[in-house]
DNA sequence: ACCCATGTAAAACGATCGTTTTACATTTCA
DNA sequence: TGAAATGTAAAACGATCGTTTTACATGGGT
C-alpha cells in the first residue's frame, strides 16, 4: 500500500464507518474519533460532511471498478465475492448514499446513475468475452443477478454470491446454445 | 377499502413518507403534517417513533405477502412489477429499515430475516408449482433475481423487472430440461 | 532562538431532533 | 347542563447534530 496522507487516512476510516453503520447514524464525532484527529483538522482536510462523502464515493467507485475483471462473467462474480469478503457486504454503497443523503445533494443521484452505467458496461464486456459477441439483453439480466447478490449477501452471505454465480452460468449456457453452438 | 381508523391513517401516511424519503430524513413533524394530526394525538395513537416503525413493518410484510401469488414464477414477477407500479420502487423496505434504524432496534434485524425467509418460502412454492417438484437451489437463484429486480428497479424502472422475469424463465427452462423432460 | 504552520482539546453556535407539557377548543353523552 | 373525553396549537425539554472558534501545545526551517 502506498504512503497514506492525513486526508487519505480520514477518508478510509470514514468510508469504513459509513458503510458499516450507515450515513445518518455516523456523526462527525465518530468520524474524527475513528480517524484520530480533532474536528479542526478534519474540517481543514475534508471541508465539510458533504464534501467528505463526495470524495469517498469517487474513491470507492474507482477502487471497485479496478477490483473487477473485464473478461469472464464467472471471474466477475468471483471478484464480487472477494470484495464482500474483504470489504463487507452491506448493500450497494452508492444506492444507500443516494437514498440516505438523497434530495439534499443531487450529485449523489448523479453519481449513482454513473456508477450503475459503468457496472452495466463492465458486465457487458464480461458477457462479450464469454460469448464472442455483445448481448445487451443478457447483460441486463446479469446486472440483476449482480445487484441481487449485492443485497442478498447482506443476509445470506457467501451463498448469495454462489447462487448468482450459478445462475449466471446457466444464463450464459442458454445464450450460447441460442447462438447456434454445438451441444456439449 | 375498509373503514380507516385514525391509527391506520397515521400508519399509511407514515409508510408512504418513510418509503419515499427515508427513515432518518423523515421527522415526526413531517409525519404529523402528512397525517393531519397534532403531535399529541400522534403519540397517543402510535406510542413512539420506534413503535410506529415496528407497526408499519408488520403491516407492510402482511400486505406484501398477500399481494404475491404462490403459484407460477412468471406470475410472481408480474405481481412484483405491479407492486412497484402502485407502491413505488425504492429498494427493499425491510433491508433499508434494518440498515437505517439498525443497531438501535434489534427487532428490525429480526423482522428482516423473517421477511426474507418468508420470501424464500414464497419463491420455493412458485418454483415447485412450475416444476412439479421442490428445487431449493433454483429457488435460491430466483431469490437473487427477486432481490436484484427490487433494487435495480430504483434506477432502471420496469426494465429491471422485465429482465429478472426473462432470466427466471430461462433458469426454469434449464431446470426443467435437467429434470429429464422431453425437449420442445 | 524564534516564527509559523499545524496540531489538539474543548467550548460555543444555531438548528433540529423526539418527546412532553401547557393552555384552550370542541364534541359526546348521561 | 355539565363533566369527561378528545382534539389542536404551540411552547418547552434535553439531547445531538454539523460547524466554527478560542486557547494552547509542538516541532521543523531559516
From TrEMBL, chains A, B:
Residues 27-46 bind DNA. One of its GO terms (molecular function) is DNA binding. It comes from the Bacteria. Keywords: DNA-binding, Transcription, Transcription regulation. Residues 4-64 form the HTH tetR-type domain. SUPFAM superfamilies: Homeodomain-like, Tetracyclin repressor-like, C-terminal domain. It holds the Pfam family TetR_N. This is TetR family transcriptional regulator. The lineage of its organism: Bacteria, Pseudomonadati, Pseudomonadota, Alphaproteobacteria, Sphingomonadales.
Amino acid at each position: 500500500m502506498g504512503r497514506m496522507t492525513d486526508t487519505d487516512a480520514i477518508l478510509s476510516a470514514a468510508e469504513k464507518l459509513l458503510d458499516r453503520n450507515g450515513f445518518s447514524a455516523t456523526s462527525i464525532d465518530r468520524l474524527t474519533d475513528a480517524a484520530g484527529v480533532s474536528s479542526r483538522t478534519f474540517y481543514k482536510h475534508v471541508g465539510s460532511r458533504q464534501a467528505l462523502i463526495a470524495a469517498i464515493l469517487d474513491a470507492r467507485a474507482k477502487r471497485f471498478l479496478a477490483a473487477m475483471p473485464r473478461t469472464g462473467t464467472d471471474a466477475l462474480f468471483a471478484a464480487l465475492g472477494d470484495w464482500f469478503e474483504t470489504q463487507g457486504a452491506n448493500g450497494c454503497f452508492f444506492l444507500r448514499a443516494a437514498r440516505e443523503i438523497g434530495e439534499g445533494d443531487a450529485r449523489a443521484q448523479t453519481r449513482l446513475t454513473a456508477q450503475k452505467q459503468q457496472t452495466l458496461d463492465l458486465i457487458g464486456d464480461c458477457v462479450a468475452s464469454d460469448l464472442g459477441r455483445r448481448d445487451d439483453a443478457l447483460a441486463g439480466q446479469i446486472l440483476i443477478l449482480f445487484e441481487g447478490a449485492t443485497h442478498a449477501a447482506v443476509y445470506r452471505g457467501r451463498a448469495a454470491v454462489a447462487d448468482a454465480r450459478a445462475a449466471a452460468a446457466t444464463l450464459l449456457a442458454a445464450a450460447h446454445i441460442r447462438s447456434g453452438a454445438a451441444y456439449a
